[in-house]
């Protein structure tokens, strides 16, 4: 471009209020992120309604995550081909249409196909939302703008199980999908009116189609998502299917990295990782994503399987945490103008670690209030992470790499989120078995406390009218149920403690980030 046009690009400002634009693009991203978690609690209802097993019904979740993970990575390239605003509107409209089709599905095969399509179009929403916010706001105001984006990223996974449980219990699982139709229509209309591409986006040339890069990314990330989502059901590496998926994921991701480094017109520019702040930000958001998604799954799972809560009540444990995030984000925004961003991120991971250590003190008769405190304490740490990490990641990134940067940043969060969910649920099972094996040595007729507990249950059963030899067998059965529950509680406690250790390990790496404050102007952004 010539110098005058360069100067015009520098002076460009959006025609409408930037905060209106931020709210509208965040609405679309919120709808999509909500959909990744809202379906989880409805899977048993979906399986029953469509005459399939629970195991088969989980493919409705897997298919969405596979398509979503692939498109997240290449969304910068797709924006170049179609134009960012046009691609964003296509994604919103088609995501809404696919939601309608999912709600109308009459068989599991139809639902899986429509969920695959929904994930494909949904994958373009998060990176484009972040990319539009980056270009709409000057670097000095990005921290506050990312506060709006954080409501979608942090609150949606928290709200998903609550809303999903309530809708499923009160109406039907189909309304989980129908809910997207008015939201999608409103978002598409306002995006078409308010959002515009800046001059540097309009003048960007398409990179062409990198078939090899596209194939390798599809293979690597697709197989990784399938492995992570199906691993627990298929007994991990005891299954040949999971071994094949792991091998293909490894070869695909390794091949994609090698190819993208040497390709003349790569589908994704890995040059973004030369920026220290962006590379560090991706690692931090990956760690945050894994802990966010793992803890959002573990607490409702614990409440439903151990404390016998309904889907609605298990979801309600998470809701106060979402409110805490909304209250804390503006406070964190103010702190970012006074304190170096890396110190705020370090504080966030420290708070998160302390909260997870507190969460590891689980007991079998835990009450609702304590569970809410545990979850709210965890999400208080999250409020100190998303906005500062997002701000520091783009602080020194050249403007022309914003699209690929936003795509890879969102991909790190989602892929590590999937890994966090899979590893945490697998560890709960494994640690429960370890504790069961350890506790079993005390469950013998020669151990006096065990015998006393059996006698206590026998006495209770006789008082209820039971008689004869069956009383002893029934009492031993009750003790075994208590024994298994205690082993499971210890398993959950261990996993929360492991998550706390990950949080504390990340803290020293925060100090390798740029010392600039979130409000300071970035040199590379212009």
Q: Can you describe what's shown?
A:
The chain is mostly helical and about 525 residues long. Helices cover about 75% and strands about 0% of the residues. It is built from 23 helices and no strands. Helix 15 packs antiparallel against helix 20. The radius of gyration is 25 Å and the shape is globular.
What is the oligomer described by this structure? single chain
Helix content: over 70%
Estimate what percentage of residues fall within beta strands.
under 5%
Q: So what's the overall shape?
A: globular
Could you list the spans in which at least 5 consecutive residues all have pLDDT below 50? 1-8, 518-526
- N-to-C order of helices and strands: HHHHHHHHHHHHHHHHHHHHHHH
Structure classification: mainly alpha
Brief synopsis:
With 526 residues, the chain is an all-alpha fold. Helices cover 75% and strands 0% of the residues.
Features of the shown structure:
globular; mainly alpha; disordered N terminus; 526 residues; single chain
How do the strands and helices of this protein lay out in sequence?
Blueprint (H helix, E strand, L loop, with lengths): L2 H9 L6 H21 L4 H7 L4 H4 L1 H24 L1 H21 L3 H15 L2 H12 L5 H29 L3 H5 L1 H15 L4 H4 L8 H20 L9 H23 L13 H30 L5 H6 L2 H18 L4 H19 L8 H16 L2 H8 L8 H38 L8 H16 L6 H37 L20
Helix pairs in contact: 2-8, 2-9, 2-11, 5-6, 5-7, 5-8, 5-13, 5-21, 6-7, 6-8, 6-11, 8-9, 8-21, 9-15, 9-17, 9-20, 13-14, 13-21, 15-19, 15-20, 15-21, 15-23, 17-19, 18-19, 18-20, 18-23, 21-23, 22-23
